[in-house]
Amino acid sequence: MSALAPNHKPRTILVCHEGAVLNRQGLSRWLADWSDLVGIIVLREKSPRKKRRIKREFRRVGAWRMLDVLAFRLYYRVFMAASDQAWEKREVQRLESRYAAIPSSTPTLTCASINSKSAEEFIRAQAPDMMIARCKQLVRKRIYSLPTSGTFVFHPGICPRYRNAHGCFWALAENDDARVGMTLLQVDDGIDTGPTYGYFSYDFDAAVESHQVIQHRVVLENLPDLAKVMISVFQGTAQDLMPGNEDSATWGQPWLSKFLKWRRRARKAAR
User: CA 26, CA 30: separation in Å to the nearest integer?
Assistant: First the structure.
């Protein structure tokens, strides 16, 4: 199903976290289907980096709201995680049946940070045209500028309104269903502020599906169209769709209070 002749395919690198099987085992196959996947960077984060994220969120929302954040994490772990993991396992199997396995010879680097010296050397050695950053780490300019056609993220949220890592959750929590989706962004120095090449969504079920499933499916349900847009970016024919930064905001971690209101409202509407 590749849209380009082999000698015209973009050279790509995938960046993902260790344990992110949908990316490592699923999206890697999709990427190799329409591009020349020349490398995979697997991020094995250390505890200090995770602790810094918690501290940043504490500074953002304060002590009282941080309890709301931690309450949601506990609620998710107890009541939702098992179901989402089962869904993810089925989705990986579906992708494996749809796309061919990537060659075992595909170069792979495991490191703690995308901004590390080892990651920089790996990217330079593979000389990619494009890099897909499926990670929580902010990519520094000396790294994101290495691929000749840019570094890209599949942002879970419709930008510019919903920036940061949980845009789908907050659109649902704000009863803004029209902006539950994914934005194809090129990385720049800001937080989800770079050139925008596509918006994607699907017919989600807010009364049943978790925010995690929804933010995965806004990508997975649109893979053929996403590949076409990525190819057009590589060929230089895509246009920046970003309407400017009006009505723009960054959003933090999910709150249990917001989740419960969203789920009650969605289930009431579904009756």
Answer: 7
